[in-house]
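As described in the Methods, two query proteins were run sequentially through the folding procedure within a single session, without resetting any intermediate state between them. The first query and its resulting C-alpha cells are shown here.
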Amino acid sequence: TGAAVVLVSCLYRPLEWVSLMVFPFCAITLPMALWINTGYAPKHFSYGMGAHILVSISAYAMLALAACQALLVMLQHHQLKEGHIRGVMRFFPAITLMETALFELIFAGMVLLSGAIVLGFIYVDDIFAQHVAHKTILTLFSWLVFAVLLWGRHFRGWRGVTAVRFTLAGFMLLLLAFFGSQLVLEVILRRS
C-alpha cells in the first residue's frame, strides 16, 4: 500500500526521495508476507467493514509516508542548521518544498483517517468493546495530534522541528493503535 501511495503521490508532487525509504522496505516485507504463515484464516467482511479496513490501511500508509517525510525534513533541517548539506541530502529539494510535501501528506492522511474513524463508528459493532477499545482510543488520540498540527500550521505557522515532532508523535500513536492493541489482545489478555 505504501508503494502504491508513493507512486500515485509522485504524479502531482516530486516525492521520489521518500521512495528511498519505502521501496526497499516493501521489497523486504512483501516476500516475507507471502512466505510467512501467520495462522490467521481469511475472513469475509461486509462491504462497510471492508471499506473501513481499506480506508484504514490507506490512512496508515499515507501517514507512514508522512512520518518518513518528517524524518527527511528533520535530517535536512539538522544539516542546514550545521551549515552544510552532505551526502544524498544535496539532491533533495528546498526545505520549504519538503515541508509543503509533508503537510500535503498529513492532510491527505487526515482525510483518510477521518473517513476510517467514521466508517468504524458506523460499521464496527461495538467500537469501544474490550477487544478494540485500545485501537479506537489510540487512533482518536493520533487523529487529535494531527488535527492540532494542521491547526497550528494554518493559524500559527508551525513548521520545521515542531512539525516533525507532532508528525512522529501522531504516527507513533497510530502505530501503537495497531501493534499496541495486538500486544494487549495476544499477550496480556491471551486472545488470538
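Immediately afterward, the second query was submitted; its sequence and C-alpha cells are:
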Amino acid sequence: MIVPGEEDEDEVTEPVPILPILLPKGLEVVKLFDTPAEAPPPTPTSERLERGFSMQNNRETS
C-alpha cells in the first residue's frame, strides 16, 4: 500500500523546490549575458573590451 504522507515529504517536497530555484537563475543568467552583449553601456571599459576582442578575432582569422 502507498503511504502518501511519507512519499510526499521524501520524494515530492525535495525536487519541487529545487526546480523552480534553478530555472529562474538560469533564465536570469542568460538575460544578464544577452543584454550587455546586444546593447553594452557606453563606458570606456566596454569599448576597450570590444576592441580587445575584435583584435583577437582579427589575429585568429588572419
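The radius of gyration is 23 Å. We note this only descriptively and draw no conclusion about the first query from it.
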